[in-house]
Amino acid sequence: MFVLAELKDTVRIPPSRFQYKLNDVVTDELNRKLANKVYKDVGLCITLHDITKIEESYIFPGDGASHTKVTFRFIVFRPWIEEILIGKIRSCSPEGIHVTLGFFEDVVIPPHKLQHPSHFDQMEQAWVWIYKENGKTHNLFMDAGEVIRFRVVKEIFTEAPLSSAPNAPRDISEKPEANNVAPYTLHGSIDEPGLGLVTWWETA
Question: Which of 68, 92, 127, 204 has its Cβ near the most Cβ atoms within 10 Å?
Answer without folding.
Answer: 127
